[in-house]
Design brief:
single chain; alpha+beta; 3-stranded antiparallel beta sheet; 347 residues; globular; 38% helix; 9-stranded mixed beta sheet
Length: 347
C-alpha cells in the first residue's frame, strides 16, 4: 500500500424536513465546512492500530483468520464505527485480512467545540456520519474499489442500531445541497440541488448539545399512545416538507421562505402536541430574536439544542441579525455551506 491514504468528509446541516424524513417525507440538507478525517498508513507494530485524535488514544487489535476483531486494547465508543464497517465488509467478502499491519487514524475534532470546562462538546453536525464516510472511503481506496454510498449507509445504520434516516451520511458523501428521502423498503433517493439566488441562512449555535436518541424516544412514545394524531401531524409535516423542496427546486426565494415558515409551523405543532422538546427554551429565544428582524427561524436537526437556522433574502438584515445574536451572547461559527463531499488522497 502507499505510505498514506487520507480521506475527508464534511459535516451537515438539515435545512428542513427533519422528522418528516424518518417517515417517508423528503428533507433538504447542506454540507458544511467541517471535516472528518480518516487516514490509513503502515504500522511498525505487530498489531493493527486505531489512533483516535479526539481522545489521543491508541487502540491495538488483530484481525483473526475467521474474520473477527481481537482487541488487545480495550475498545472504546470511538472504535464502534470501525467495528460496524469491518463486520459489514467481512460479511460481504469485500475486505480480506491485510498482509501487513496498518494504523488507522480517525479525527472528528472539527465537529466539536469546547465548553466552559474545556471539555469537547458536540456541535451536532454529523460527526459519526462524517467519520463513517471518510473511513469507508479510505478503506475502499486501499482495496481499489469505488466507494459505495449504500455500504456507508448500511455501516452507519449498524453503528446506530438501525436508527436515523441516513441523510447525514448522504450529505457527507455527496456534498453540496441535497434532497433526501427513504421509501418503505428503506431505499434512499438522493437528488443534488443548487443554492437559490438571494437566499441567505445564518447558523446559530444554541450552546447546548442535543440527544437525538432521547428526542426520538419521546416522538415514538407519542406514536404508541396516540397513533391517529401521530399520523395526522406527520402527514402535515411531510406535506410541508415536500412543498418546501418543490419551491427550492423552482428557485423563487420569496416562495421558499414562505414554505420554510410553513414547515417550521408544522414542526412546532408536532412538538407542542407530542412534547418532544424540539422547541426548547433556547430555540424559542433564538426565534424571538429572528422575528424582530423579519427572519424565519427553525431548529436544525432533532432540535432541543445544537444549531438553529435563520433564513432571509436580505443581506443587510442578516448583518443586523448577526450582531443581535452576538450581543445576546450566542456564537455564530463560520460554517462554509455546500462544500465538496468525500475526498480521498494517496501519497
Amino acid at each position: 500500500m502507499s505510505d498514506l491514504l487520507r480521506a475527508t468528509a464534511p459535516g451537515k446541516l438539515i435545512l428542513f424536513g427533519e422528522y418528516a424524513v424518518l417517515h417517508g417525507g423528503p428533507a433538504l440538507a447542506t454540507s458544511v465546512g467541517v471535516k472528518a478525517i480518516a487516514e490509513i498508513r503502515p504500522s511498525m507494530s505487530n498489531f493493527d492500530e486505531i489512533y483516535i485524535q479526539n481522545s489521543n488514544s491508541l487502540i491495538k487489535f488483530r484481525i483473526t483468520q475467521d474474520g473477527n476483531l481481537d482487541w488487545h486494547t480495550e475498545p472504546s465508543k470511538d472504535t464502534l464505527i470501525f467495528s460496524s464497517l469491518f463486520s459489514l465488509l467481512h460479511e460481504r467478502n469485500i475486505w480480506d485480512i491485510p498482509k501487513n499491519s496498518t494504523r488507522i487514524v480517525l479525527d472528528s475534532r472539527d465537529f466539536f467545540t469546547l465548553d466552559k470546562k474545556k471539555n469537547l462538546q458536540k456541535l451536532g453536525l454529523g460527526s459519526s456520519a462524517g467519520i463513517c464516510v471518510a473511513l469507508t472511503g479510505a478503506i475502499y481506496k486501499l482495496i481499489d474499489i469505488k466507494p459505495e454510498f449504500e455500504t456507508m449507509i448500511a455501516a452507519h445504520q449498524r453503528f446506530q442500531k438501525e436508527k436515523g434516516s441516513g441523510i447525514d451520511v448522504a450529505c457527507s458523501f455527496n456534498g453540496g445541497v441535497i434532497s433526501y428521502s427513504i421509501d418503505s423498503q428503506n431505499s434512499a433517493t438522493v437528488k443534488e440541488l443548487t443554492w437559490p439566488k438571494d437566499l441567505h441562512v445564518l447558523p446559530i449555535w444554541s450552546g447546548l448539545s442535543s440527544s437525538t436518541t432521547k428526542l426520538l424516544a419521546r416522538l415514538y412514545a407519542f406514536k404508541n399512545q396516540n397513533r391517529y394524531d401521530y399520523e395526522r401531524y406527520i402527514e402535515d409535516l411531510s406535506a410541508a416538507s415536500s412543498y418546501s423542496v418543490s419551491q427550492w427546486e423552482i428557485g423563487k426565494t420569496d416562495m421558499i421562505l414562505k414554505a420554510i415558515k410553513n414547515f417550521s409551523k408544522s414542526l412546532k405543532s408536532l412538538d407542542n402536541v407530542a412534547k418532544i422538546g424540539i422547541w426548547s427554551d433556547v430555540h424559542q429565544s433564538l426565534e424571538k430574536i429572528a422575528n424582530k428582524f423579519g427572519a424565519i427561524y427553525k431548529p436544525s436537526g432533532s432540535g432541543g439544542g445544537d444549531f438553529g437556522l435563520a433564513f432571509t433574502n436580505d443581506k443587510s438584515k442578516l448583518k443586523r441579525l448577526s450582531k443581535a445574536y452576538i450581543d445576546e451572547g450566542f456564537k455564530l461559527p463560520k460554517l462554509e455551506l455546500s462544500v465538496k463531499g468525500l475526498q480521498v488522497e494517496e501519497s
